[in-house]
Amino acid sequence: MRLRNLQIITITHQNLSVEELKHFVIQPSESNPVHTTLSRLKDLFDIDEILYLNTCNRISFVVVRDQAIDEHWVQRFFSQINPSLPQEILDRLHKYVDTFTGLKAIKHLYQVASSVDSLVVGEREIFRQFREAYRYAVQYQLCGDYLRLVEQATVNTAKYIYTHTKIGERPVSVASLTFKKMLDSEVNPESKVLLIGAGETNRNVARFMKKQGFSDVTVFNRSLNNASNVAELLKAPAYHLSDLADYKSGFDCIIVCTASTKPIVDIEIYKGLLQGDESHKVIVDLSVPRNVDPLVIDQYDNTYIDIESIRSLADENMQFRKTEMQHALLIIDEKAEEFDTALQMRRLEKALKSVPSEIKSIKETAIEQVFKKEIDRLDDDSKSLVLKMLDYMEKKCIAAPIKVAKQTLG
């Protein structure tokens, strides 16, 4: 159990597009699930333990093995994962794949789990995904004592970083920032909201509304099927986008995000939606180009939230998080050294595990064979004293090497 046995093979968004990453993902089937492929990889490549982490922008294999990983090994490894990979891609794998060994590997894992090395710095989803990947490996007996220690140290380090730095503070996603601005504009769970568009951005906004208990939402979309999916999340009615002009139930807030290149909410539509109510409204336009006619913003009483203001705030918050990265990296360096010490201690513990039984065996051999005649000639009191002395020496001899080992490793 040495630190150099820990090795990581990883491909991320930094080297390949998200679309290209799929070529290196384990493709499961009903007859060949992921854990079957991982078990086969263990056997084929002399891997003692393995953990597979697959996220939207990262593929990582955390492996424990005695021999070092080289470029040729990586080529053979991914050829087994995807036999249809063209040779020209295999020849260029060194440009796409990063490998980490020993201290660099544990530091890299700490950076991943604490989202220092992430597309969105401070995003805790990767922490959850790492823990799920470990639980999966445990479930199918793909890992053992080494990765147990790795997972424990990684989780503790990530939690420490989230607690002792501000790396996770200030939202950076469009959906979370949009929702915060809505709340700041006095939109509340009782507000009547029109959600126009059912793409990913509006789905994410809808999830925030669900968490906060919004109960009066109406969804419009060109695809009624997609509208129904979002509406189901909020237990809301869903309508085709063409029904927007006939909607007569009023609103407090409009959220628009569609792929339309022309304004969805023009002056006439907006007048119809108002139903004569010209009180202050909140208009959220997350579309590019804008889906709300500028005349609507100019001529009516409203708080207008657009994608540019959201992006500007997201960039500002992301910069704030990145300033915390240096603090996090110092913590990672410190914790990585602690892991190396813990690993050495574990190796010693395993090495010393047989000490008690060996010392006990030596004592019994001395009593029953080597010094049996001499002990038998002793009177009862003397014999009792000798046996007590040997019991005392046995206990001390067992404790001494363990104590020295602990002192040596600090």
Task: Describe the fold and architecture.
This protein is an alpha/beta fold and 410 residues long. The protein has three domains: 3-169 and 324-346, Beta Polymerase, domain 2, CATH 3.30.460.30; 174-310, NAD(P)-binding Rossmann-like Domain (Rossmann fold), CATH 3.40.50.720; 356-399. The protein is 55% helix and 12% strand. It is built from 18 helices and ten strands. The protein has helices spanning 18-21, 34-44, 71-81, 87-91, 93-96, 103-113, 125-139, 145-164, 174-184, 200-211, 224-234, 267-274, 294-299, 307-323, 325-352, 355-370, 372-376, 380-408, and strands at 6-12, 49-55, 58-64, 98-101, 193-196, 217-221, 238-240, 253-256, 281-285, 302-306. A six-stranded parallel beta sheet has the order 7-6-5-8-9-10. Strand 2 (49-55) and strand 3 (58-64) form a beta hairpin. Helix 8 (145-164) packs antiparallel against helix 15 (325-352) and helix 9 (174-184) packs across helix 10 (200-211). It is elongated and about 115 Å long.
